Amino acid sequence: MGRELCIRGTFAHTQQLGEFEIFHDHLLITNSFGVTTHFEAATSAQSQAQLAAQSSVTLPSGHFILPNFVDLHLHAPQFLYQGNGLHLPLMQWLDEYAFKAEERLDADPALARKVYTRLAHRLIQHGTGTVLFFGTIKEETNLILAQVMQNAGLRAFVGKLSMDMSSRPSYMESSTQTSLQAARSFVKKCRDLTSTLPQHERLVEPVLTPRFVPTCSDELLLGLGKLSAAESLKIQSHFAEAMDQVEFVRRQRGAEDIDVFDRASSGLLTSRTIQAHCTFLDLPSFQHVRSCRTAIAHCPLSNSYFSAEPFRLREALDEGVKVGLGTDIAGGYSLDIMNSMRHAVSVSRMRQGSKDIITGTAGDGSKSLAIDWKESLYLATKGGATALGLTTGAFAVGSPFDAQEIGLFDSNGSGVGAIDIFDAEELGSAQLSVTMEMVEKWWCLGDTRNRVRTWVQGAKLDSEISPLL
């Protein structure tokens, strides 16, 4: 798959929420399986022995390596119309845009392959190495998605939609049993795609995906819960996303989303479950989610368009809920997790500002509802990895090397891309180093021009887009 790596330079990660660490002049080595076998100061005795025994690559000054991003919520077929239709309420948007796009790809395998191939390359360009995908109803289309992501070298969790009800009659499965049978078939075929590969090269995994309560009967949810338990399968869906959707469920089921998923021993709220959005969950609901060890995919940009309320991120984190970030393409228009991080911070700051105005408690010393850039970076890396049960997201011996190289300034001390550096003339570029302030500047201003390389499981990914696509 990849080759053994021996890299000397600056590394950075957020292994704990709010704690950002920079490791200057460190040595990281991986084995042929893409797993980190050594990570410590380059000047240590063991590092020096390693450097004497093998060739190494030294990062240029102004570059650092960061864990790559995890996107916890992305609708792959909706990449077809990314950036359109955001003027509509959620339920109407689904009928007029989402379902139509998904039907179109299900009817055209060549188009599906073209869209998914372009999507894979875009993800690599944006430093996203792991994605939890919503797919479509049709098995073949989801197998195309899985194969494209495996070929691209991305770590992908692929969900074939399960829908035995729909507001669009042409886009649903014919019965509950048909839906359950299709889910079982997809799980087997998706696993078969990589069954002949060595374990460390099996990057694609099937995920059970009841779209959301309005499209799934209680019988279907119960059956999927049993399948998840029997096959140890991850589950993904949507919770309490938008006001029109919440009211729809109340009329349809006489209950809240969380109650529908949790009742009748459905087995859908587990440590293997990731629920997107959750903007209308209250504190007791967060406590229940935590007790189930279920994770939440926070999609702040999408919520700004479709939800009447912002997600209570600080409260979820304080309750110990596992949270990561998602783009929610195409409910969110940006495929770049960096934009998800920025919006997560800005929305949280608006929440704190509103609280200050309403309660008149500004500056009273109480804990802020706002998060900072370091916390958002945790959510985009280690938080998302933890939600998926992965050991990636930070640099440690025994963890797969999933990472991205970021360039802040060049050999002349000039900033890369939108980043400007003004200290080079006084200090000289050789004395410039990667600092917390520089990383924060990249967090605010950085883009694809700063991204030099991306790796998954120790293998360098190709971010070039074929002109034929």
Automatic annotation (TrEMBL):
<dbReference type="InterPro" id="IPR006680">
    <property type="entry name" value="Amidohydro-rel"/>
</dbReference>
<dbReference type="GO" id="GO:0008270">
    <property type="term" value="F:zinc ion binding"/>
</dbReference>
<keyword id="KW-0862">Zinc</keyword>
<feature type="domain" description="Amidohydrolase-related">
    <location>
        <begin position="64"/>
        <end position="404"/>
    </location>
</feature>
<dbReference type="GO" id="GO:0046098">
    <property type="term" value="P:guanine metabolic process"/>
</dbReference>
<keyword id="KW-0479">Metal-binding</keyword>
<dbReference type="Pfam" id="PF01979">
    <property type="entry name" value="Amidohydro_1"/>
</dbReference>
<dbReference type="InterPro" id="IPR011059">
    <property type="entry name" value="Metal-dep_hydrolase_composite"/>
</dbReference>
<dbReference type="GO" id="GO:0008892">
    <property type="term" value="F:guanine deaminase activity"/>
</dbReference>
<dbReference type="InterPro" id="IPR032466">
    <property type="entry name" value="Metal_Hydrolase"/>
</dbReference>
<dbReference type="InterPro" id="IPR051607">
    <property type="entry name" value="Metallo-dep_hydrolases"/>
</dbReference>
<keyword id="KW-0378">Hydrolase</keyword>
<protein>
    <recommendedName>
        <fullName>Amidohydrolase-related domain-containing protein</fullName>
    </recommendedName>
</protein>
<dbReference type="GO" id="GO:0005829">
    <property type="term" value="C:cytosol"/>
</dbReference>
